[in-house]
């Protein structure tokens, strides 16, 4: 399975916590991340990640392109619902292409648990 992991700054601690809790299952996957999220995950969980650019510098679009290519099976995108992002158009494009390609997308930890359970057979 190829899983994309992305978190806005206020949610990065939650992302590291989530990945740590599911390290066995996620460790079997190819993990694709945006830049800073991936650095946190790699440094703090030891899992290997394929880091793209940071979100504000095109990382969301790079992951969106992989989704368009059929190269991603599921996306966990812990979005900050309380902070405006300068690269909101890129974020919208990523969310949209998930719907276009019918790729499972979780935007909070509760749904991310279900996504991991559904795709990887673990909650
Ligand atoms: O901004 C992001 C997603 O929109 C995440 O990017 P970083 O992981 O580089 O912080």
UniProtKB/TrEMBL annotation:
Pfam families: MGS. It is an enzyme of class 4 (lyase). It catalyses: dihydroxyacetone phosphate = methylglyoxal + phosphate. Keywords: Lyase, Pyrimidine biosynthesis. The keyword Cytoplasm does not apply. Residues 1-123 form the MGS-like domain. CDD domains: MGS. The active site is at 60 (proton donor/acceptor). Its EC number is 4.2.3.3. NCBIfam families: MGSA (TIGR00160), PRK05234.1 (NF003559). Catalyzes the formation of methylglyoxal from dihydroxyacetone phosphate. This is Methylglyoxal synthase. It comes from Halorubrum saccharovorum DSM 1137.
């Amino acid at each position: 399975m190829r899983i994309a992991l992305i978190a806005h700054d206020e949610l990065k601690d939650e992302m590291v916590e989530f990945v740590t809790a599911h390290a066995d299952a996620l460790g079997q996957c190819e993990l694709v991340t945006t830049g800073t999220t991936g650095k946190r995950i790699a440094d703090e969980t030891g899992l290997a990640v394929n880091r793209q650019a940071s979100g504000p510098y095109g990382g969301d679009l790079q992951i969106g392109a992989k989704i368009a290519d059929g190269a991603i099976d599921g996306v966990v995108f812990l979005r900050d619902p309380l902070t405006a992002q300068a690269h909101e158009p890129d974020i919208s494009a990523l969310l949209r292409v998930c719907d276009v390609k019918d790729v499972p997308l979780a935007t909070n930890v509760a749904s991310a648990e279900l996504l991991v359970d559904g795709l990887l057979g673990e909650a």
